[in-house]
Write a structure and sequence with these properties.
By secondary structure, the chain is mainly β. It has one domain: Jelly Rolls, CATH 2.60.120. The chain contains no helices and nine strands. The strands form two sheets. Strands 1, 3, 6, 7 and 9 form a five-stranded antiparallel sheet that branches.
């Protein structure tokens, strides 16, 4: 088993008002562990964002770990609710924002391969 710490898995992904898949754990990885997250609101108005972690099955509200968290204008969130969370092969990270082109996301993770 090999481990690659602190790998950028999502970089400057601009969220929309629809759920977007930010990352899917590839078949070459056994697991990922989320090390760091930054969601940045680069607009002059407050926005909200939501994040889902989906291990398997159909994504729905039961997969939401962050729901409509407020993000003040020109500020950021480190999203502590998803730091330390793990996903297995095929697992998915999804997110959305209250307005298109208002919030971007960066995620770093430790990737474990078989």
């Amino acid at each position: 088993m090999s481990t690659k710490p602190l790998q950028p898995i999502v970089f400057n992904f601009g969220l929309t008002t629809a759920w977007s898949t930010l990352y899917t754990v590839p078949s070459t990885a056994e697991t990922i562990g989320i090390d760091a997250v930054v969601l940045n609101n680069y607009t002059t108005t407050s926005q909200t964002f939501s994040v889902r972690l989906v291990q398997s099955g159909v994504p729905n509200e039961l997969n939401e770990v962050i729901t409509d968290e407020n993000l003040r204008s020109q500020s950021y969130s480190l999203a502590p609710a998803i730091i330390g969370q793990a996903l297995v092969t095929g697992g998915v990270i999804q997110a959305k924002a209250s307005a298109n082109n208002s919030v971007n996301v960066n995620i770093t993770a430790t990737i474990t391969a078989p």
